[in-house]
Structure formats: C-alpha cells, structure tokens
Amino acid sequence: MERTLGLEEPGSKMSGESRLKEYIADVEWRFAKTYAKTAPHEYTIRSWRTDLTGEFDFFVDLIRQKGYDGNFWGVAYRYLEFEECKYWFCADEDGTVSIINREPLDLAAWKSELKKESGKY
Fold it and tell me: Where are the domains of the chain?
C-alpha cells in the first residue's frame, strides 16, 4: 500500500510529496552490510550530495513533524512511512543529522528479492 503525507507547500511550484519523491529518487541508497542479518536497511548520507543539503534537511524536518515515535532495540527513533518505505534518521550527540535510513514496509518480500538478486540472505 502506497502511503502519502498530504503535503502542500503554499507558493511552491512543487508539492511537498513531489519534492520528497524527487529527493528519494536522486540520492544514492546503499545497503547497510553491517546490519544485513539483524536489521537490514539502506541509508543515504548528507555529504554524498552536498547540492541537495536543503532537500536532506527538508526530509529530516518531515520525519520530525509528520513521523511517529518508535523503539528499536531499546533506542527511540522517529519514523516516517512514505509510499513503500519507512524512514528514520540518526543524529550525532550534538544533534547533527547526517544519515537517513530506510527499509521497505514489506521487509519479508524485500529480503526475498535481495536473496534472489545477490545472495545477501
């Protein structure tokens, strides 16, 4: 099921959802090999696309404003479900956010597909 956020930006040529979709499509998402068995997900890092820093910040703000609180292994995170994925960020001790993570909402199907494609599972 595709999830939307109902975002509209007054005076903007692009809706908030279109802006988010474009950012998600434009950045590199790398598989987190370290967590392949325990918490499979992908991530993107702010510094990989310095030309999109404003869009990165927009995404983090959306997670903060429209997301929901959850816990993973006893650590609190803020999650945002959009289209087919769940997104969350990791902040440094000083509050700086440099990583946005994602995992498909249908994690079992994703794991199965990864196994077929690359034998990661």
Answer: 16-118
